[in-house]
UniProtKB/TrEMBL annotation:
Xref: InterPro entries: DNA-binding_RecF, DNA-binding_RecF_CS, P-loop_NTPase, RecF_2
Record gene name: recF
Annotated localization: Cytoplasm
NCBIfam families: recf (TIGR00611)
Function: The RecF protein is involved in DNA metabolism; it is required for DNA replication and normal SOS inducibility. RecF binds preferentially to single-stranded, linear DNA. It also seems to bind ATP.
Phylogenetic lineage: Bacteria, Pseudomonadati, Pseudomonadota, Gammaproteobacteria, Lysobacterales
SUPFAM superfamilies, per the entry: P-loop containing nucleoside triphosphate hydrolases
Name recorded for this polypeptide: DNA replication and repair protein RecF
Length: 237
């Protein structure tokens, strides 16, 4: 989610928006349908009828504006929790900032942008602007670019995002989601493993941690441990 393609970050963002905005899924599907239709017309050849593509651009502009508005509101709500979790898990990197790019020129009408880019998009065979091209990033005072992060810091940054989303979801719905973490000890030293565990202990969430061995930071914690092999679960503690 931190160093990978923008698609993963959009999925994380839209998953959060989906649980806040009840109309999101319907609008998102309408946007995807319009995007598919516009792309199909762009690939139809140089002689396509412009009257066929204009309605889809209007639909992309209308639904895209809603999705963009909801995404921005969600990130605004998420930011305080991001700052809180970053201060717990990565205090050595300083204050945190969140950046969002909507996928087209800021303060421009998306339908107008699509109309102006129609022939360029036709040469490329797909729509190059819209909420499907959006991205967001998290940066730190002492690590302004993601390339400045170590592998362990990338993992902790992803955990900051996931835990912040869990806090926001709990605040919105009034109940905690189940938190699932795989291989906590990988790429994290004892200090940062303890920071993650302490952050989770401050919540009423049910937490599932999987791995090939018990992390040392959990040895004296009130936990239940199970061994899973070939689909069979055996209680150990």
């Amino acid at each position: 989610m931190i160093a990978g393609a923008a698609e993963e970050r959009r999925r994380f963002l839209d998953w959060g928006v989906f649980h806040v905005e009840h109309e999101f899924l319907v609008i998102w599907r309408r946007y995807q349908r319009a995007l598919k239709q516009r792309n199909s017309l762009l690939r139809a050849g140089p002689a396509f009828d412009e009257s066929l593509i204009v309605p889809w651009e209007v639909e992309l502009g209308r639904t895209g504006a809603l999705i963009d508005q909801w995404r921005r509101a969600y990130l605004d709500a998420l930011l305080p929790f991001l700052k809180e979790q970053a201060a717990l898990l990565l205090p050595e990197l300083g204050y945190v900032e969140l950046r969002y790019r909507c996928g087209w020129a800021e303060n421009e009408d998306l339908a107008g942008v699509l109309a102006s880019q129609r022939f360029r998009d036709q040469s490329r065979g797909h729509t190059t602007s819209g909420v499907h091209r959006a991205d967001w990033s998290i940066s730190f005072q002492l690590a302004p670019q993601r390339e400045h992060l170590s592998r362990g810091q990338e993992k902790l940054t992803a955990l900051v995002c996931v835990l912040a989303q869990a806090w926001l979801d709990a605040r919105h719905r009034g109940e905690w989601p189940i938190v699932c973490l795989d291989d906590l000890a990988s790429e994290l030293d004892q200090v940062h493993q303890a920071a993650v565990v302490n952050s989770l202990r401050a919540t009423p969430a049910q937490v599932l941690i999987s791995g090939t061995e018990l992390p040392r930071v959990l040895e004296h914690q009130p936990i239940r441990m199970f061994h899973v092999e070939q689909g069979q679960l055996t209680p150990l503690l």
